[in-house]
Amino acid sequence: MKFALLRIPFQKLIVDCAIAALVVAATVAGAQGFHQLSGIAPSASLFSCAVMLVAWSRGIVSAILATALTILAFEFFFLEPRYTLVFRLNDLPQLVFFAVGALLVSLMCDSERRSRRALQEVKSAALANEAKFAEIQRELQLTIDTIPAMISTYHSDGTHSFVNKVWTDYTGMELADVVAAKGAGLFHPDDPERAAWRASLQSGEPLIAEAPIRAADGSYQWFSIRRTPWRDSEGRIVKWYSIGFNIEDRKQAEGALKRSQAYLAEAQKLSSTGSFAWDIDSDTHFWSDEMYQIMQLASSSDLSTDLILQRVHPEDRMRLIGELNRAMEGVGDWDYEIRLLMPDNSLKYLHIVARRVVYETGRREVVGALMDITEARKSQEALYVAQSALAHAARVATLGEISVTIAHEVNQPLGAIVANAQACLRFLDRDTPDLESVRGAVQWIVKDGNRAADVIRRVRGMMKKADADKIPIQLNDVIEEVAVLLQRQLRSKLVQLRYDLHDLPPVLADRTQLQQVIINLMINSAEAMEHVQDRTRILVIRSFRKETGHAVVVVEDSGAGIPRDPEQLFDAFFTTKASGLGMGLPICRSIVEDLGGRLWGIPNTDRPGATFQFELPPLEAVAPLAVRET
Amino acid sequence: MTCETSRPREVVIVVDDDESMRVALTYLFRSMEIEVMVFSSAAEILNSRLPDMPCCMVLDIRLPGVSGLEFQDQLAKNGVRTPIVFMTGHGDIPMSVRAMKAGAVDFLPKPFRDQDMLDAVMRALSADRERREAEKRLSGLRSRFESLTPRQSELFKLVTSGLMNKQIAGILDVSEVTVKIHRGIMMKKMQAQSVADLVRMAETLGIKAST
After folding, report:
1. Domain A471-629, CATH number (from 3.30.9.10, 3.40.630.30, 3.30.565.10, 3.40.50.720)
2. Where are the beta strands (DSSP E) in A394-483?
3. Nearest CB partner across the interface for B111, out of A407, A418, A451
């Protein structure tokens, strides 16, 4: 590389030297020839010219070399003694004079050459610049034409001075057309953009607007338009630059988004469903509009977990805190119900379904939906109330029917007895008592008395109900069935149900009757806890096998308790309930006793509440009996 | 019309589905020296001929098949106007009210006092007796009216509408003497003493004066 760098000036030096030698040689040859022909000695100025030529064409180095060669050649060819290099002192001034003159001329020529060259360089640079400029302009034009935007410039009076290709392609008009039309037909006639543009032209304020612009096919598409003025040094507006971006897709997407948002909001409103997101780590909440509606909070409310907890029913707060903690611990899915206590003291039931989401960034969020099920719950409860009322009414009606039967069936013989007895008195009161008739009537009195007693016996049998389907039954199964049936009712009374079930021998009984007994005991227990506020409402249902082999079922509550003498609870028509009939426990007892078992209740001694239990003999103890009966 | 019976014979008709009640009522009415006929159902009584003497019915308001009230309606439709005393069980007050409105004499809740029953039955029997006498009078009158010749019955209507003999002669286009003769025969046939008697008869028969 070093060589390469060195070689260029070295080569140039060789060429310079060669040209200098050649020019000098040619000049000497010319002068020699002319001298021999004419005998006139050559002038020093001729050689000055040669040196000048060399200096002009090759620079100062060649000129010095040419000067030296010329002095040597001159000495050799033309100074006496000729054809020797013997130097005479008297020739010195002439030679020095020549050398100085040649040097001066060389310097001048070299300087001229340098300036000429500089000029040439400037010229070629200018040419190159021009080409580059043209290139840039082409590129700019291309850029302006390919930018997906409508670009145009305006004169200060608002007439178009330039439009790009996108502009002409879109509008289908050339610059000349639009200038001729004075800009008309571009914008929608109703569009406020025209007024804004006129205002901008007047005030010189930049224009920022969105407006529909007419396309070549006559349709309109939305554009975002910006126009900025360009002022001269005195502040006068010379030109307006305008750029318009097609935002039709955005506008449509915006419309679609707005629509889908509206649909979503409407759907949420209709279904009373709100959606929410909870960023676990930053404890930030995001709610849909309907969420605010359901929670009855202003949409400007500053959401926080505390604020939400305030809305939740006090009895459910711990539960929600538990659920939130579970979310932090990383549990994935939720589906639960919770109650709100609104400022007006009304209750709201919410069904919440949520899912935990962990994003790639590590952000943890709980996303979910919440439905206001108050109405559904209310109608459910109304239905339940109606059902129990119906059941109660049916019980009362049955009782009423029984009493009607009793009244009718017993009244008939009673009426006959009274009539007969009165007839007897009349027969006896006669002057001659008609004893024969009295006998006949009294016989009927006896008959009717027995008949009345029969009726009473029959009715009692009817109330006891004939033996239903007695089959071997697993009591624990019945307990579980009943617990499922009562689940909702227990939950609505906020009673916690606990099981403590052990293996039981099968018993021979009617399933429905056993269900009736267990339901009765459990509902009694739940109702006994209705007004308990200071302790947990716990209903324990326990079953075990006694040493005697009997199956025992225990229902224990933490309720108001029962009197010291619980036996009065088993008297018919005794009740502590406002709407009770007082038939439940007596019927239960008669069912259990009919099955050969026992049923009793005792107050809890060491804690509040009462315990009811019944025991039934195991299947193997009653089965032979049953066989004998049939 | 035998001479032994000092008073017209009367009978109480008892309808009750309960045998004990029928027997007891029989004893009771016999002890009151009232004759009794017993039936166990409404159908039975509708199918049999009722005795032609003052009578009344003692009905249980709840009868098998047809209820006491329906039976009451049926009797009324058949033109039987025998007075009815109802016996009711417990709590049949609305039915009893309906029965009374439909013309029952009384209703007695079971078990009843014998005196109450006796009073009710006596009231019913005397009502029936009066009714029967009134009916008897009416039917005699009707048969007398029907024995008149067409000319005489026409004359009856003209006389009872208050016309003078002269006017009647004009209308019938006969002489006044002829009218007088026919009028005498007609009044004799109707067993009327005066024109006033005749007018009362016309009212009882429901005959309208014609002109």
Report:
1. 3.30.565.10
2. 471-473
3. A418
B11-137: CATH topology is: Rossmann fold (3.40.50)
- The H or E element that residue B12 is part of is strand B11-15
Q: Is the ipTM of this complex over 0.90?
A: no
Q: Can you give the pLDDT at residue B211?
A: 47
Domain boundaries, chain A: 14-119, 147-246, 253-372, 378-464, 471-629
**Residue B43: exposed, middle, or buried by beta-carbon count in 10 A (0-12, 13-18, 19+)?**
middle
Q: Tell the burial category of A239 from Cβ atoms under 10 Å away from its Cβ (0-12, 13-18, 19+).
A: middle
Summarize pLDDT for A276-334 with one digit per residue, the tens.
888 888 888 888 888 888 888 888 888 888 888 888 888 788 878 888 888 778 777 87
CATH 3.30.450.20 applies to domain A253-372: yes
Fold of the B147-205 domain: Arc Repressor Mutant, subunit A (1.10.10)
**Which residue in A404, A412, A440 is closest to B21 by CB distance?**
A412
Q: Which residues of A184-195 are buried (b: 16+ CB within 10 A; e: fewer)?
A: eebbeeebebbe
**Distances from the Cα of B191 to the Cα of A451, B134, B143, B145, B207, angstroms:** 62, 17, 12, 10, 17
Asked if the model's pLDDT at residue A430 lies above 70, the reply is yes
| Domains A147-246 and A253-372 alike in fold | yes
Contacts of the segment A264-270: beta carbons below 8 A, 24+ positions apart: A264/A288, A265/A289, A265/A290, A269/A293
Cβ contacts of A435 on chain B, cutoff 8 Å: none
Strands of A100-254, DSSP E: 149-155, 160-163, 207-214, 220-231, 237-246
Per-residue pLDDT of A114-159, as tens digits, reads: 898 899 999 999 999 999 999 999 998 888 888 888 898 998 888 8
Query: Per-domain residue ranges for chain B?
Result: 11-137, 147-205
A contact set with B (CB within 8 A): 404, 407-408, 411-420, 422-427, 434, 437, 440-441, 444, 447-448, 451
Q: In A113-193, at which residue ranges do the beta strands (DSSP E only) sit? A: 149-155, 160-163
CATH number 3.30.365.10 is the correct assignment for the domain at A147-246:
no
**pTM as predicted:** 0.39
